[in-house]
Every structure is written in structure tokens, then in C-alpha cells.
Amino acid sequence: MPVMKGLLAPQNTFLDNIANHFDGTHSNFLLGNAQGRHGHPIVYCSDGFCELTGFARTEVMQKTCSCGFLHGAETSESVVQQLHKALDGQYEYQAHVCFYRKNGNLFWCLLDVVPIKNEKGDVVLYLISFKDVSETFGKRISEPVHRGRKGSHFVQVRHRGRTIVHHLTNLFHKRGKRKLTNNMFPKPSLPEYKVAAVKKSRFILLHYSISKALWDWLILLATFYVAVTVPYDVCFVNHDEGGEHHSQVSGGTMASDIAVELLFILDIILNFRTTFVSQSGQVVYNSRSICLHYCTTWFFVDLIAALPFDLLYAFNITVTSLVHLLKTVRLLRLLRLLQKLDRYSQYSAVVLTLLMSAFALLAHWMACVWYVIGRKQIESSDPVTWDIGWLQELGKRLETPYINSSVGGPPMPSAYIASLYFTLSSLTSVGFGNVCANTDAEKIFSICIMLMGALMHAVVFGNVTAIIQRMYSRRSLYHTRMKDLKDFIRVHRLPQQLKQRMLEYFQATWSVNNGINANELLHDFPDELRADIAMHLNKDILQLPVFERASRGCLRSLSLHIKTSFCAPGEYLIRQGDALQANYYVCSGSLEVLRDGMVLAILGKGDLIGADLPEQEQVIKTNADVKALTYCDLQYISVRALREVLRLYPEYGSRFSSDIHHNLTYNLRDLGGTEVSTLARIRIPVLLVNKAEQPSSLFIYSNHATPAPSDTDARHIFRISTNERPT
């Protein structure tokens, strides 16, 4: 059952935690890299710092944490030196310092340096806070210098004490009791720069878990039970309160009704402990947020639907017909079903079942109303409608007519079956006349049922048709493309052999990819995600030894250029003398390398065939044919794309040029003249079939690099009979 899981990826909420630490007093801070080798560059600048200093974020980024761009004539050199020592020593530091804004105006601030550690305990960042205290220090600046060193020191200490007390007061007010420290950020709550683990209580139920899915199915069945039994009890049982049938039905359904009520009450409790997806797409695990969300959405609907009316019967409390009517509020649970329909929309069989169930449920409700209409006409004792109502007509046919409003009449099961028969026949067609509408009230109701039937035909059966078409959409697409291919062959009068090759290729490729174009499917995905998908799809070729020394960026670039191909038996993948367009990797199947009718090599799964790249961008001529022996799945990368990637990564390009010789199963590059074979580096025995000899003879190269064999030169070649098993 598909459910929107929400955004579940672990997040680094460091900046949010830092913002919370300021308690709204100010937001003037910088983040510096503690692992930098050149002056600890600034990696983040808050908006408050930009407003305080007048510098734009682009002007501050990558400058040093010592903030040399804020220094001026009044900036204390001793404070600057202590700041450098704190940054180099990775310890906390706090001081009052005079800085200068971009416009040249000076301001006093309380400078606070706090090292930030990651989950390993390493200091990775510096948090540098700047609290503007110019108003307090303005009086001190305006006072004469001859006041003396002692008074100045006393004012500074007193001001620092007031600042710390003010900050600690805010901390107590908003976060409760904490250990007092002289830093702006208490150590117990110091944030760490790491991926935050999901904090979830063991009593919180995940909304996308399998257990929650099974519970939702159980509640769905209970909801359908309520939707069937409640209208029946209100319409049929309520009008037969003194009869034997009422006591039988009440005794038979009391236990199940109480069980359903308990299920609904338990569902309310579980909903208070079930996660949900917020408007931003993130999963909410906080218990308080879950409770508030549930109380403001579906709590009151679920509470009303779970009221235990059936407990009144269990304790033999006399109830009136009003209680039966109050039970109809349980039908509000159907609103929850509409909310969860999107969960079932991906399963055609489930949607088809739900639509047919909804159609049958509507017919059941209309049957209950149809019986109430007939019953009210009997109770009214109207001489005009008494003898022609459908319920009286049914009683006459069953030889149990009504004598008065409380005596006689058809049995309750027969009346319900006749009502359901009439409503279903009216919803699906125009009825058959054996149960018909005679009075005005019955005719008006019949008209309404026919209108509903037309609407249900459009909604239910229209959706059923769309679901069936969706189930066979892929097959329909296959037949459409096959018909287009046959029409193309017929219009252009292609020969039978070429026609057969085209049909076989189409059928074989369809069986592999099911008609899905991966490039078109992934076109709208971001490059980063497409590269990861491409690396997974092409992991076999990227794990070849020739790519072992490539960087991850190089592999990602290569993976985006790797394509898939297919070759049927007898098809030529490469022709001798043609320009080589790509290097091929055999995923499955086998091919043979031919020259002048002689087999030079047989390629199987895991083999790489192509050519090394010349230093100059010249056309690579192939020295042999490559022909498929069986159905082959291939992956290839074009020579042009390979050169483009190697040009972007020159440090790997030279390594690739030297390693490719040792990884090619067969080198197709035509060196001109008598070519020296690369079979010395082959991973499987290379078979040579000389058509001049008898068919029972095979030639196998030795493990030494040898020239191509001639009719007279048989050195390094061993001849064995095909009837004998080589060792």
C-alpha cells in the first residue's frame, strides 16, 4: 500500500540550532573553517552580521575569521593576538573589541569564539559571535583619558558582568535551569556539526510501516462493516423492534458491533502516536506536534464515529429509535476512506475492487431507503396507497399481505432481497417490472435512482475501463509498434531476410527493456541523480581494471556516456575496414572476430573489444569483423565521448592510454601491414578455424604473442581433434 513517506533523509540542522542559541537577542555571527591551512576562511555569514558591519555576504565569504577587514586604529592589538591564538589553539575566547564598519564608523562588540566539533570530536568550525555593545561603551569612549587605568578596568569588568547576567537570565527564562558558564553558549547545549539522528520514541508508530498498513486494512474492513450494518439497522431492524427477527439480529451482531467500536477507539489512540508528513514534506516525530495535528484534523470525526452506542444493548438499557438514528454518524468514517484512496490508486486490482464495492454499497443504501418508503406507506393507512404499494404487492405474491400496519407483511429477509434486487436493476438498467414503482413517492425515488445510475456508470465503469486499459497499456504499445514496423516493411518492400532480422531485433530488445527508453525516462532528473543511476546501471563495465585508477568524477562522467546495445545471431557488430565508433563490453552472449573467413577470437561475457586511442585524433580503422554468435547484450562508449572525458581528466588520460592495451580482449585497431595480435593478453583461449582444413580440426594459439598464421607457418600452433577433449 503506497504511502507518502515524506522526506526521510538525515539532515544537518546545525544552522537552525545555532539560531536557537541566540534566543532572539541578536543574530550577528560568522562560521569559520577550523581545518583550513590559510587563516581559517569564513564559510558562512549571517544576515545580522551584514547589517551590523555594512559588508555584503559576497565581500565577507572566504576572508579570515580574524576579521582583518573590520580592524582600525582603535582595534586592540592584544585582543587581535589573543584571537589568533584562540583560533590556532582551538579553544574558546571572549573579549570586548572595537571594530569598524564599512563606512568607517567604529562600534564596540562582545566577541565570542566557540569551537564546534563533529561526531568524531574533531573541531571543524568556529562560531564567532558579535554582540553590539556600542551604547554601553559610548559613554566610556566620550570620557577623558586621564580617568586612569583602574577606573577603566572597573567599568569594563562591571559591564562584562552585567552582559553575562543578562544573557544567563534569558537562558533560564527560555530553557530552564542550566549550568552557569561565562560563555555565550552553555557547553551542555553546544551544537555539533554532524548529521542529526532521528529522535523518535519507541512508542511512535511510523505512518508508512507495514504494521500501520495492516492496521489501515483492518480499519477499512471495519468501516465497510459499519457502512453496511448501520443503514440496515436503522431502516429494517428499527421498524421491527417487537419482532423475533429484531432480537435475533441484535443478539447476533452485538458482539461484532462492540468489537468494531473498540477498534475505532483503539485507532484514535494510535493516531495520537502516528507520525505524519508536514506541508514541507518532512516527517514529524514530535509527540506534541502529532497530537495537535490530529486534534485539528480528524479527531472529532473519529470520536463521534467511535461513540459506543452498542454498549447500551450490552447493559440491557432501553433505547429509543433516536439511538438507531444516532448510529448513522459512524458513516463519517467513510470520509477517512476518501482521504486514503490515493494510497490504493497504484494497484489496479485494489481500485477495481473498491469501485465495485462502492457501487454495491450505494445499492445497499438505496435498498434501505426503498424499504422505508414502502413501510411508511403501510403505516400511513392511506386507502389510495395502501393496496398498491410495492411492499403490499410483494406480500400478496408471497401470500403474506399486510392486515394492518403492524400485522402481516413479507418476511424481513425477503423484503430486503426484493429491495436490493430493485435498486440494482434500476442502477444498472431500467428494471424488469416484477418489482415496480406504483405510488408517486415510489416513482419519484425510482427517477432519482436512475439518475444516480447514470452517474455511477460514468464514474465507476468509466474508471474500470481506464484501469483495464492501464493494465494492458504496455502490451498495447508493443502491438502498436509492431504494427508500425510491419507497415514500414510492407511499404518499402523489404526482403524476407531483412524483415526477419528487423522483427527478431525488435522482439529481443523489447524483452530486455520492455519498451522503456531509459534516456527519455531520466531526462528530467538532475545531473547528480542521473550520474548515480548511470553508475549503478553500468557498474559492470566501470569495474574493469582499466577504470580502477579513475577518480569518482571521471567515472560519473563516463557513466553518462555509456549506452546499451543488442546484437542478434549472425549480425555484424563491426565490419573490417570501417571506422571504429565505440569500445564494446560484452554483458551476455558470445561473438567471434573474423578476418578473411578465419576466426581470430571468440568473445564471451566480460570481454572488452575495441582499440586504444591514438595520440592524435585520427580515424581508427578496424582490422577484423565482429559477428554475433548468440543473442548479445552489449554496453559501449563512443570514441568521441571517451576522448572528451579523458580531455577533462588529463591525469587519468595518460594512465588510460597505457592500461587499455592490457585490458582489451582483442585490439581492433589496424596498424597497417602485418599486425601483431594482442592474444597474449587474452583471458580465454582464442580459437582459430582454418576453413581449408577439415571441419574436425581446431587451431589454438599458444600463450605467446604470435603473428597471424599462414598456410606454411604453423609455429606455436597446436592441432587437436574436436572429438578429443583438450586438457
UniProtKB/TrEMBL annotation:
Pfam families the record matches: cNMP_binding, Ion_trans, PAS_9
Stretches that traverse the bilayer: 298-326, 347-373, 415-437, 444-468
InterPro entries: cNMP-bd_dom, cNMP-bd_dom_sf, Ion_trans_dom, K_chnl_volt-dep_EAG/ELK/ERG, K_chnl_volt-dep_ELK, KCNH_animal-type, PAC, PAS
Subcellular location: Membrane
Gene Ontology biological process: regulation of membrane potential
GO cellular-component term (any): plasma membrane
All residue ranges annotated as the PAS domain in the record: 14-90
Keyword set, alphabetical order: Glycoprotein, Ion channel, Ion transport, Membrane, Potassium, Potassium channel, Potassium transport, Transmembrane, Transmembrane helix, Transport, Voltage-gated channel
Catalytic activity: K(+)(in) = K(+)(out)
Gene Ontology MF term list: voltage-gated potassium channel activity
SMART domains xrefs: cNMP, PAC
Gene3D superfamilies cross-referenced by the UniProt entry: 1.10.1200.260, 1.10.287.70, Jelly Rolls, PAS domain
Domain Cyclic nucleotide-binding: 546-663
Topology class, membrane: Multi-pass membrane protein
Domain PAC: start-end pairs: 93-145
Family label: Belongs to the potassium channel family. H (Eag) (TC 1.A.1.20) subfamily. Kv12.3/KCNH4 sub-subfamily.
Subunit-level organization: The potassium channel is probably composed of a homo- or heterotetrameric complex of pore-forming alpha subunits that can associate with modulating beta subunits.
Chain's role: Pore-forming (alpha) subunit of a voltage-gated delayed rectifier. Activates at more negative voltages, exhibits fast prepulse-independent activation kinetics and deactivates much more slowly, but shows no inactivation.
PANTHER family reported in the protein's UniProt record: POTASSIUM VOLTAGE-GATED CHANNEL SUBFAMILY H MEMBER 4 (PTHR10217:SF630), VOLTAGE AND LIGAND GATED POTASSIUM CHANNEL (PTHR10217)
Protein name stated in the entry: Voltage-gated delayed rectifier potassium channel KCNH4
Organism, as annotated: Neogobius melanostomus
